[in-house]
Structures
1.
Amino acid sequence: MVGIMNKTRNPHLSEQKKPDQLYSQPREAITSFAFDQSVVDVFEDMIGRSVPGYSTLLSMFPVISRYFVKENTRCYDLGCSLGASTLAMVQGIDQTGVSIMAVDNSSAMVEKCRHAIEQHVSNVDVEVREYDICELPIENASMVVMNFTLQFIEESLRPALIEKIFDGMNEAGVFVLSEKIAIADNIEQDRQISLHHAFKKANGYSDLEVSQKRSSLENVLVPETVELHISRLKTAGFSEVFVWFQCFNFVSILAIK
Ligand SMILES: C[S@@+](CC[C@H](N)C(=O)[O-])C[C@H]1O[C@@H](n2cnc3c(N)ncnc32)[C@H](O)[C@@H]1O
């Protein structure tokens, strides 16, 4: 267990961000995207320049954790990467006896996440675990965050994962699910994808980078419609399910038990 302390600076921005240039040169063959060391090294820059609304979304996690987290319960950050969601949650937690489990199955991510968490100290205990979230036991949870991770889980495993999260949560607990979405209406889908690409280009990515990254994510990041997410969450038993944040084709849903 590692202690954490609230810091005034934005918890998900580090002083030394290595620029993401992974797809800047033409590649002979595009391999499938993986959260390996090369991605981990540039991940903070990559996610900030690739996910519209990412920092605004994270800046609301302290508000959500202060509102929902209960004394003597657990929080989970499933697919924690470098711990940005964990550190944002921690900022809002002044309830006593709370611990956070931050989980990722990429050993390179986990190693760097542990280092990031160790830079902070507070009354919230954080454990960073290298584990497959599909196998992870979840219990006594008042807040679970899955920020842009379900989209990387094999589709057939998604319903059972959502059911397991529901089962491990306490009454009135909150599940925050953020995802890139697919849109059933073809015109809106094309427009939102164009706007997402325009966002990436505004953040300095070239057409080549956008196109090579897109190919590498093919069949690795598999988005679903917001309607499917909401219906799956309701089927699992969540009583209130609604979109609280959207920026182009990226949404975040609150599901309350
Ligand atoms: C887009 S990143 C998540 C970003 C992070 N939640 C944030 O807010 O900055 C997806 C993460 O999910 C992790 N992941 C994918 N499949 C996983 C699994 N089955 N179990 C645990 N982690 C997984 C990846 O290693 C990666 O770090």
2.
Amino acid sequence: MSGKLVLHEYAASGNCYKVRLTAALLGLELERREYDIMKGETRTPEFLERVNPNGRIPVLQVGDRFIPESNAACHYLADGSRLLPRDPFDHADMLHWMFWEQYNHEPNIATLRFWMGWVGADKLSDAQRLQVPLKREAGNAALRLMNEHLSGRDWFVGNAMSLADICLFAYTHVADGGGFDLRLYPAVLEWIERIKGQPHYLPMNA
Ligand SMILES: N[C@@H](CCC(=O)N[C@@H](CS)C(=O)NCC(=O)O)C(=O)O
């Protein structure tokens, strides 16, 4: 790993937390730089030009280079570590869950958490309000699938914790903030406790 590691982030974001949790579990030091996304601080000309033209955090800075996208940043940090399966099939299976997280999980569970907790249910636009039931159904479908997969197994891939677990954990363990009832998913609840019990586990608000 070459160069100082700086995380450009908004601490309450699960995508940013994934990167902090990966670093903590691996004993890596991260300098943290906070941006207020509610004030558009990731949309300034300086941020767009220097940090991420896509105007979003997290971005992991390595020396003078930048890695946007939470799961890519986690993958960089975990290179060569126990969090990346060596077996090519297991590695691809881990990536499958990380891509799935970005397509089927985060856009539903994280978005409802943001709409409920930051925008406010009474301040949603008409377009957002129309999407709430669809995102609720899709979020519950994602949690159901996770629950079925975890029934009878400890981790998403193989017999050990991998980045698939960390990337899925970030928004799942706070899904109640988006109005999801995790008591409906007992295998998910057990898996959440399993992750919280790992040495060097870092809570989201630490
Ligand atoms: N797919 C991206 C999503 C990044 C993202 O949506 N970041 C949000 C916070 S979680 C953000 O920067 N929002 C501020 C904005 O869009 O202006 C990732 O996994 O990093």
